[in-house]
Amino acid sequence: MSAEHLEQRSRVRIALLSIGAGICVLGLKYLSFLLSGSVALKSDAIESVVNVVAAVFALGAVIFAGKPADKEHPYGHGKIEHFSAAFEGGLISLAAVLIIFEAAKGFFYGVELKDLGLGLMVNLVAGAINGLLGWFLLRQGRKTRSKALEADGHHILSDFWTTVGIATGLLAVKLTGLKWLDPAMAMLVGLLLARTGFRLVKESSQALLDMEDPDVLGKVLAAMNRVRTWDIIAVHEMRTFRSGRFTHVDVHIVVPEFYPVRQAHDLCEAFAKKSLEEGGVEGEVHTHVDPCGRLYCERCPAEGCTIRMAPKTADAAFLLEEATAAGPA
What we know:
Shape: elongated
Largest sheet: 3 strands, mixed
Order of helices and strands: HHHHHHHEEHEH
Number of helices: 9
Distance between the termini: 48 Å
Strand order of the largest sheet: 1-2-3
Strand content: 5-15%
Number of strands: 3
Radius of gyration: 26 Å
Helix content: 55-70%
Structural class: mainly alpha
């Protein structure tokens, strides 16, 4: 079984774990609301409903994203993970609206708190599970380069901090007897969730529009500098975009103009493959071979070149600004 297949199976298992843990946490949070009657704890339970729905959608996205490229999807299916993250952002925003509505009702009609202490204890257990799950999903999402799992991890960690904030506020209610603090805390939770939802939708939309990722671009370029040989003279018009965990790179590579076509082709193919391996990037590189045209002599490291027009006087390292710019006309 290939490493890629094993990694995909790992993503699916992690997504299934997220669903199971999410259902468990939802049950505990709903129980804490029934025990306490707290609007803030009810808002926490509403968010957990979103967590479960989002986890199910993330599982579908992970499975679909693992399908290989085909005739209808020549760049693969990875972008479904960005759809998943955007969908989760939308769900979070919807939960925020529902929570703010419940908080407003609490302000208007008042709240009747019951066994607040026991409800808080149950909710804190659920929060602890969420904290561990969120940390695990975030770590595994980055490790397996799954945007859907990473988005789920960010969301669940935000839920964990929400639980901590609610617990702090409700302790204040218990100590002071000021019941209006309960809907006030729920209102704050709703506003924080709205911010998280907006951020997720924004980031996912940018990825779906193939917005350049500076981190990926810098990582690939640094790897190119480490693996280049003397006859990889320069790179330019470099572009990247991500499709889920898969990165596509387009780049023009300048080689000595006296190289035969086959030699130049094999050189660029090997260079592209080594660059991805060195950078730890899963993806592909589409290369365009450019002859040097004796335009790079001042930075060309080819000491034995017979057609050199000037001695080497400049640093030959690839710089980001030059690598992404258009080449000489």
